[in-house]
Write a structure and sequence with these properties.
- By secondary structure, this protein is mainly α.
- Helices cover 75% and strands 0% of the residues.
- The protein is built from ten helices and no strands.
- It has helices at 2-34, 46-53, 59-82, 92-120, 123-130, 135-146, 151-175, 189-223, 232-241, 245-269.
- Helix 1 packs across helix 3 (59-82) and helix 9 (232-241) runs antiparallel to helix 10 (245-269).
């Protein structure tokens, strides 16, 4: 009985994590969609979302909720990587997937640290966020990496990895290969079609963004300058600066909103395995 209650608790916090991640992506998409028509600030990444929420009347409370949700999602990713409740296995493919989940967990814990830093007013973190969402961190990391021997090649390798991930996401969205633990049992055909259609568009659009992020990383390595590196917010701003950029950015923004809705779909319909047995 106790084990069943524990499993239920883990399931609920995993679903909460998916939902909060969806909220963050929806806000990123909305801010990006409003920018071309002059109704909002410039496109931004996840840290920029936190910065935009903080001055709101209940901004600190919103950041606490988001930090809790991202922490729950990060814990679920680490659980997937270490306990292997979804049976990824120990072959090369399984280890690669589990390492990806572990990195995803660490990344979201980093976002939790940023949110907490903004709430309590840590000067170093707050000033980094205020300087342009994820852009400064990406460039600082790139510059630090390229200062080491073979660092240029390491940055290029990371860029290639991000491009590969983006291409796989685009292929998954185009082919309709969503999360294999997603189950629409008990839902109507109409709801299932809408949920899958929106999710596929969101996954593919996010893949396009990652492909561009990886491309900028490779350009930074090739030109040997960290200024070429861009995070999510910088990539969206680069899209806006291109010819017909407003239209392109608008489509990508809708795609990021769709990806946020996909996270809501996962929060509602994904089967959550909390035990490795």
């Amino acid at each position: 009985m106790r084990k069943r209650a524990s499993t239920s608790f883990l399931e609920y916090f995993a679903r909460f994590g998916f939902a909060i991640k969806g909220v963050v992506y929806c806000i990123i998409g909305v801010l990006a969609a409003l920018a071309p028509v002059g109704m909002g600030t410039r496109p931004t990444g996840a840290q920029g979302v936190l910065r935009a929420l903080l001055p709101q009347p209940v901004g600190s409370l919103l950041l606490v909720i988001i930090a809790l949700g991202l922490g729950c999602f990060g814990l679920f990713q680490l659980l997937r990587a270490t306990a292997d409740p979804e049976h990824a296995g120990r072959d090369a493919r399984g280890i690669a997937r589990r390492l990806g989940w572990a990195w995803n967990g660490v990344f979201h814990f980093g976002m939790v640290a940023v949110a907490i830093g903004m709430i309590v007013g840590l000067r170093r973190i707050s000033s980094a966020v205020a300087s342009g969402d994820d852009e400064r961190q990406m460039r600082d990391w790139t510059a630090a990496a390229m200062s080491y021997p073979l660092g240029r090649w390491a940055v290029a390798a990371v860029g290639v990895g991000i491009i590969v991930y983006g291409v796989l996401q685009i292929r998954s969205g185009a082919a309709g290969k969503l999360d294999k633990w997603l189950s629409f049992l008990g839902t109507s055909d109409t709801r299932r079609r809408w949920a899958r259609g929106v999710s596929r568009f969101g996954v593919a659009a996010r893949g396009v963004v990652f492909l561009l992020v990886g491309t900028f990383m490779i350009r930074a390595a090739y030109d040997f300058t960290a200024r070429e590196a861009r995070g999510l917010g910088g990539t969206l701003r680069a899209l806006a600066a291109e010819p017909h950029g407003a239209w392109v950015l608008g489509i990508v923004a809708l795609g990021l909103i769709a990806y946020g809705l996909y996270d809501f779909v996962l929060a509602r319909y994904r089967r959550i395995n909390a035990s490795s047995r």
